[in-house]
Design brief:
alpha+beta; 15-stranded mixed sheet; two-stranded antiparallel ribbon; 20% helix
Length: 377
């Protein structure tokens, strides 16, 4: 659906409402059917889209406490009896610990792939003997608020998508932090690759197949859309109650079908532009809350909030959830294939080392491998 480029947001709303009246909708109070259909028409436009956002993640001050156990604070430890004269740097040692741990868990033999095999075997033997590894440090110490700034570039061809996340440096500029994607559509072919920076010259590349209709990666994209006030309508199965609020807003009590195996209750505060300004979603093990403000529109084709935030609080923990805030920087429709392919490409930067982990390969040895032409890591 393409709309006239010179109409304003009110004419967009009028167009959507007029289109919605003629379409079938869910049963609901008078006027709500048209409202929902107009929301569906707007949400349907968000496809083959390139969305760039500035993001801020803030964790609130809290103590490490929950109802079941102390949290797992992992620290690398080295026994005092270990000869540390030729100790590898922390990054290389971390990779060996991961390699040994994964190999032992999967029943795979642990081998050496470094240039100096005898030296590496010594450290592998120490890790295997428990003299080097990760130590769980229980704590109820107070943790101060922490803030992380980054930018995300999201390419959506739902149910497929690909994301590039870049950390915003204190001195200015961006540096690639991670990439992840959900590619393949159906469960039989769904792939969920990711690429994560371990440090500036080493990357962790993981591959696994999807195992559920809405996977964990897709959930993150939904929460981002919800925080920006759109995307809800495709999951609404019933409108159970409508309560008028101030300033031409209505609170909708709805049932959502985000996950095929269960129904979810939600409260949506919808304004006159049909943007969801506040939402509370009660999932089985968590509560998701969102807030949005401002208006962002693209060529009178699509509109949503300019700013938004969300929290997901697990019901079995007392710790305060982190808040993720998004501010839209740009949104481009009709994304080119080459742009999407670049986002979904999980090649690590040139000359970088890679730790390959394939969760679905029966003969995966979870080893660090060089990029072609780079030499042995």
């Amino acid at each position: 659906m393409l709309l006239a480029k010179n109409c304003n947001s009110k004419s967009l709303l009028a167009f959507l409402l007029a289109s919605a009246i003629a379409s079938s909708a869910l049963a609901g109070p008078p006027g709500v059917d048209e409202m929902l259909s107009a929301m569906k028409a707007n949400d349907a436009q968000f496809d083959n889209v390139l969305l760039r956002c500035k993001c801020e993640r803030v964790s609130r001050p809290h103590k490490f406490r929950n109802k079941t156990s102390q949290p797992n604070l992992l620290r690398l430890f080295i026994d005092d009896n270990v000869d540390k004269s030729n100790l590898p740097d922390e990054t290389d040692l971390m990779k060996l610990v991961v390699k040994v741990s994964v190999a032992k868990a999967s029943g795979q033999p642990v081998g050496s792939h470094g240039e100096d095999q005898s030296d590496e075997l010594y450290w592998i033997e120490q890790i295997d003997a428990g003299n080097i590894g990760w130590k769980v440090v229980p704590s109820d110490k107070f943790v101060p608020s922490q803030k992380t700034l980054f930018r995300t570039t999201l390419g959506v061809r739902w149910p497929d998508f690909a994301v590039l996340r870049e950390r915003i440096l204190p001195a200015g500029g961006n540096v690639q932090d991670s990439k992840w994607a959900s590619i393949g559509g159906s469960l039989e072919t769904l792939e969920m690759p990711s690429l994560t920076s371990l440090n500036r010259d080493a990357w962790l590349h993981t591959k696994k197949m999807g195992s559920q209709p809405i996977n964990a990666y897709q959930e993150l994209i939904l929460w981002q859309q919800f925080s920006l006030g759109f995307g809800f309508s495709k999951f609404i199965t019933s409108i159970d109650k409508v309560v008028p609020s101030s300033h031409d807003r209505n609170t909708l009590f709805v049932t959502l079908a985000i996950w095929p195996d269960r129904q979810t209750k939600a409260e949506l505060l919808v304004d006159s532009l049909l943007i969801v300004r506040e939402a509370t979603i009660s999932a089985n093990a968590s509560t998701i809350t969102t807030h949005s403000d401002g208006v962002f529109s693209v060529a009178d084709r699509f509109q949503c909030a300019r700013n938004g935030s969300y929290q997901r609080k697990m019901k079995d923990t007392q710790s305060a959830p982190a808040t993720l805030t998004y501010t839209i920087e740009s949104m481009e429709f009709d994304m080119q294939d080459s742009v999407y392919a670049d986002l979904a490409d999980m090649s690590s930067p040139t000359e970088a080392r890679r730790l390959e982990v394939d969760h679905d390969s029966p003969d995966c040895n979870h080893e660090v491998v060089p990029r072609p032409g780079n030499g042995t890591p």
